[in-house]
Design brief:
about 325 residues, TIM Barrel, about 35% helix, globular
Length: about 325
């Protein structure tokens, strides 16, 4: 019964569908053992996506996030006999003031873990559509290579400031680029930054998510791509599984392909956030620290679970 560490619902995310309860019910029906809820943190109006101001204000995004956590707690209690649910969030890293927003979220709410992600470079979304990606590339100097370097530099700042337990879609930057499946070939400056970032994640005990949504969006490989995974594996890094679902039809999508990829990389052990295992950074009085730690399963045992008879693709 595999695990997912990354999900969004239409109830609390404008670019997703279905209610949070429908997402949980579908995860149960598909045989998941762990379902992690990781809605986005609030953003200021200067970081709204195109058209978002028609349905939200900064204040309503804050309330939406508060409402999400209330509903997540209710659902965790309701469905605890059927599935282990983890309450978390997905961070952003857009501009210096983003750190203050994250600290406010951490200080206000208790949570099991959080996903440290980057969706912007030069404060411009890099995975929203091709036009905004090109704006970010122009801001970086006009080439994918320069934008990639800037992305991984910003990611390094995020990693240093937050030390996220799970690092989300590590190489998301390639999604809309002209080099989406080229795996940063010939980009020495990019690879230097990738290795630096991976080494830092290993140094504090972070985990990279293997994110199947890259396959759903037409990439040849999930996030991160094969060379990055092998580099991280060689450093002794840990991996977790995610579908990054934005609707019930995406829960477990391409997980069979993700398992094939895990075996191709040579990964022998998959880690998962476990609320029965305390985080090494958590204390009973520190609300700002994640509460859950990690457990693991061998890939051999993972591949034998009955889950794989329920999930196709």
């Amino acid at each position: 019964m595999p695990y997912t560490h990354h999900s969004h619902s239409g109830q609390f995310c404008g670019h997703a569908t279905n209610t949070l309860e429908e997402m949980v019910q579908t995860a149960i029906a598909k045989g998941f053992q762990t379902y992690s809820m990781t809605e986005h943190i609030p953003r200021p109006i200067e970081d709204f996506y195109p058209g978002e101001e028609e349905s939200h204000t900064p204040e309503t995004l804050v309330k939406l996030f508060d409402d999400y956590l209330i509903e997540a707690i209710r659902l965790r209690e309701k469905y605890s006999p059927q599935i282990k649910m983890l309450i978390g969030f997905e961070s952003e890293w857009i501009r210096p003031s983003t750190l203050e927003i994250i600290r406010q979220v951490q200080g206000k709410h208790s949570y099991d873990f959080f996903m440290g992600s980057l969706h912007h470079t030069h404060t411009i979304p890099i995975d929203f559509d091709r036009a905004t990606y090109e704006r970010a590339r122009d801001a970086a100097g006009g080439t994918d290579e320069r934008l990639f370097e800037n992305y991984f530099d910003a990611q390094y700042e995020m990693l240093q400031a937050l030390t996220p337990p799970v690092v989300g879609h590590f190489d998301l930057i390639r999604l809309l680029s002209d080099h989406r499946d080229a795996q940063f070939a010939g980009m020495d400056g990019v690879w230097e930054r990738i290795r630096r970032n991976l080494a830092f994640v290993v140094s504090y005990g972070g985990v990279l998510e293997l994110n199947a949504s890259g396959l759903r969006k037409g990439l040849a490989e999930p996030y991160p791509c094969l060379p990055i995974c092998r580099e991280f594996l060689g450093m002794g890094g840990w991996f977790a599984m995610s579908d990054d679902s934005h609707g019930i039809d995406q829960i477990g999508t391409n997980y069979s392909r993700l398992l094939d990829f895990i075996q191709k990389v040579g990964i022998k052990e998959i880690h998962y956030v476990d609320s029965d295992t305390s985080s090494t950074t958590s204390t009973t009085t520190d609300k700002s620290a994640p509460h859950a730690g990690f457990s693991s399963i061998t890939v051999g045992d993972l591949s034998q679970l009955p889950f794989w008879t329920k999930v196709h693709g």
